[in-house]
Design brief:
CATH topology of chain B: MetI-like fold
Largest sheet of chain B: none
Order of helices and strands of chain B: HHHHHHHHHHHHHH
CATH architecture of chain B: Orthogonal Bundle
Order of helices and strands of chain A: HHHHHHHHHHHHH
Oligomer: heterodimer
Distance between the termini of chain A: 42 Å
Number of domains of chain A: 2
Number of domains of chain B: 1
Helix content of chain B: over 70%
Largest interface: A-B, 94 and 92 residues
CATH class of the largest domain in chain A: Mainly Alpha
Helix content of chain A: over 70%
CATH class of chain B: Mainly Alpha
Shape of chain B: globular
Radius of gyration of chain A: 24 Å
Number of strands of chain B: 0
CATH architecture of the largest domain in chain A: Orthogonal Bundle
Distance between the termini of chain B: 55 Å
Chain lengths: 274, 295
């Protein structure tokens, strides 16, 4: 009796959640639908959910008359460069987990404290510092300030402390140096954490906006986010092209998400429950 | 000797990251504090010798700047309206999603989480299209129900609410995951014991589940508050602070003064105030929590 009732309840909850999921997804559906409508149809009232006249022209316009090819290339360079950061963060996590040195705890506390500092406070001084280094308007300057983040170091450290010291000692007894031990022994047993962090690194660098906006002043240094924000200012009424631009930004992350959902959710859960 | 080489190893591993964090996180705070006491602008950037120390003049100017006042009030409204909305929405969805464990429920979880990892500029652009007063989807759907067109982004107060709606849509998914993780960590024994005592589902929720979620709720509240204090991208892309500065936030104020007007000293002073606000609010929340535990 009670189990029938709970089954009904669960079905009702599932139905409610499905309605909610559709509502939450409307912006994405509307983006995809708008991106394949011709300019004449995109502002039609009543709107057409399924385009009457299907066209790819909004996408081709992005890459032919606008510079989205250049922005895409820059974004990909930014993504690749941020993977250097992934390595640095892994190394730092390992250093804090497995080495002892004077002042280690104090340094680690400072590292963790940087999590509290908002971007808006550091953005002007960081711009001044990059300017002094001659790195404004370069992709290096776009990537460098965000290369290392305390939070990722923290996650790596948590994982590396679980690696048994005996494993490391064995490698050292075999004559392996510190770097070799790290590359040949530590990294190969760190698959899960590396996978999570690689995905998070991809998403964060693909989506990054504030630094590229500040540092990249010439159009040929723009990333996709900055290019899209600029497009919004210039093409504010051509929603077809805008939706195509948004789709170019959203779809790669969507694809990564579909394939790596479990890792991403686990990574974000870890990030929440630090 | 062996110990020394291990120190060198530590330096190799930890050094680069610590150096980067120092240069781009710790030093900037000091630079911001220093710059806020000067009249640093574009001219000063080219010729540092022209920069003058002006004491607290920037702060005095901020306090009498009407635009900064508006930005501060707006930011306060974003926090006061946005934080409870995100906490309630993400908790409600997490509670519902936690009622089933089948593939269906896990699949549904993805839909609610998706906005959280979507590029913020894309989000702003898409919502700008939905919000279009004459030909946006939202006003069309409302017109089906006989509702007059809503000036989503054209009226100062409504525009604030519209931006908050976008922020909630984007921010709730991440917090939902945190609540879901906490819910799954609650031992089943509590509920089994409660079932023996004949507890109603409502009591189960209000007397067991929600009190046990106290830590997750605290975490979500603190991080969400910090996020709303820094609210930037939505007003930047969707309204540029308008109409009539109705959506101007402190973070956008800092950006505009720093990078549009090149008034670096003045913008630094505003950023120092923003930082202090975050520190104070966070400290107060921690203090409230401590007295809460003592009960």
């Amino acid at each position: 009796m009670s189990s029938t009732r709970s089954r009904w309840l669960r079905a009702a909850v599932a139905a409610l959640l499905m309605v909610g999921a559709v509502v939450v997804s409307i912006p994405f559906l509307w983006m995809l639908s708008g991106s394949v409508k011709p300019e004449s149809e995109v502002l039609d009232i009543p709107p057409t959910l399924w385009p009457q006249e299907f066209t790819w022209s909004n996408y081709t316009e992005l890459f032919t008359s606008l510079d989205f090819g250049v922005y895409l290339k820059n974004t990909l360079i930014v993504v690749v460069l941020s993977f250097i950061g992934l390595l640095l963060r892994a190394m730092a996590g390992y250093g804090f987990a497995k080495f002892d040195f004077p002042g280690k705890n104090a340094v680690y506390v400072i590292v963790l404290a940087t999590m509290m500092i908002p971007d808006q406070v550091t953005m002007i001084p960081t711009y001044l510092i990059l300017n002094a280094m001659g790195l404004t308007n370069t992709l290096t300057g776009v990537v460098l300030p965000g290369l290392v983040s305390a939070f990722n170091i923290f996650l790596f450290r948590q994982f590396f402390t679980t690696i048994p010291n005996e494993l490391l000692e064995a490698a050292r007894l075999d004559g392996a140096g510190e770097i070799r031990t790290f590359v040949r022994v530590v990294l190969p047993v760190s698959g899960p954490i590396l996978a999570i962090q690689a995905i998070l690194t991809f998403i964060a660098s693909w989506n990054s906006f504030l630094w590229p906006l500040i540092v990249a002043t010439d159009q040929e240094k723009y990333t996709l986010s900055v290019g899209l924000a600029l497009l919004e200012g210039q093409y504010s009424s051509n929603y077809g092209v805008l939706m195509a631009g948004a789709a170019v930004m959203v779809l790669p992350v969507l694809v990564v998400f579909v394939f790596c959902q479990r890792y991403i959710v686990r990574g974000f859960m870890m990030s929440g429950l630090k | 000797m062996r110990k020394l080489s291990r120190h060198r190893g530590a330096l190799i591993f930890v050094g680069p990251s610590v150096l980067l964090l120092l240069v781009f996180m710790v030093v900037p705070i000091l630079v911001a504090a220093g710059a806020s006491l000067t009249d640093l602008d574009l001219r000063g950037l080219a010729d540092p010798s022209s920069v003058e120390f002006i004491g607290l003049e920037n702060y005095r100017r901020l306090l009498s700047d009407e635009l900064f006042g508006k930005a501060a009030v707006n930011t306060l409204l974003y926090v006061v309206i946005g934080v409870p909305l995100i906490v309630v929405c993400s908790l409600a969805v997490a509670l519902l999603l936690n009622m089933g464990s089948s593939r269906l429920f896990r699949g549904l979880r993805a839909f609610y989480f998706l906005p959280a990892i979507t590029n913020i500029v894309a989000v702003a652009v898409i919502w700008g299209y939905l919000y279009n007063t004459d030909s946006g989807l939202l006003n069309y759907l409302l017109s089906l129900g006989g509702v007059e067109p809503v000036p989503w982004l054209d009226q100062p107060f409504v525009a604030k609410l519209s931006l908050i709606l976008v922020g909630v849509w984007k921010g709730a998914g991440f917090n939902m995951i945190i609540f879901l993780a906490a819910l799954q960590g609650i031992p089943r024994e509590y509920y089994e014991a409660a079932a023996i005592d004949g507890v109603t589902p409502w009591q189960r929720l209000t007397r067991i589940t929600i009190p046990l979620l106290r830590y997750a709720t605290f975490f979500v509240t603190v991080t969400t508050t910090i996020a709303w204090i820094q609210f930037f991208e939505e007003p930047f892309v969707m309204t540029d602070g308008g109409p009539l500065d109705g959506t101007m936030s402190v973070a956008l104020f800092i950006y505009q003064n720093g990078f549009n007007l090149s008034d670096f000293g003045y913008a630094s002073a505003a950023s120092v105030l923003l930082f202090l606000a975050i520190m104070i609010v966070t400290a107060v929340q921690f203090r409230l929590r401590r007295s809460d535990v003592e009960y």
